[in-house]
Amino acid sequence: xxxxxxxxxxxxxxxxxxxxxxxxxxxxxxxxxxxxxxxxxxxxxxxxxxxxxxxxxxxxxxxxxxxxxxxxxxxxxxxxxxxxxxxxxxxxxxxxxxxxxxxxxxxxxxxxxxxxxxxxxxxxxxxxxxxxxxxxxxxxxxxxxxxxxxxxxxxxxxxxxxxxxxxxxxxxxxxxxxxxxxxxxxxxxxxxxxxx
Length: 196
Hints:
- Helices cover about 5% and strands about 25% of the residues.
- The protein is mainly β.
- Strand 1 and strand 2 (about 10) form a beta hairpin.
């Protein structure tokens, strides 16, 4: 993590650079445990020194965060624990934007258009009935009275069929519980560190 030269050119990561880091730090006591030399772990915890080493990074952090609380001897790096880093667009105001969620709860608006089929086993049907009527066609009617039956007491039978509908309605039952689902892709955890 130290500076070096290549083809007589001095190579160094600029202050404010962030990199993934899986190693342990060289500082094991005091206010900056676990930080590798020249870097601080991005854990959102305050770092305090007395030799002014944070001067350049403090100015960068103050501009980035829109604050004036970082000084040459005291800084608070961004907290990148459990976070992904996403490149910003050309607008400077989006440089410190945050967002996203580890889970999502789906609703009907998230689903593609689709349909459901239902089957009704008892649809419209019909009934037949047979009615017997006394044959009085051989007799003249009398006002105010029922005509008597003919001498043979014959009955004529008429069949009639009446269509009927059941008025059945149907609906489908709800399925699912609406529980949130994770949308975190496969990952490996490690620290992010920032150069000062």
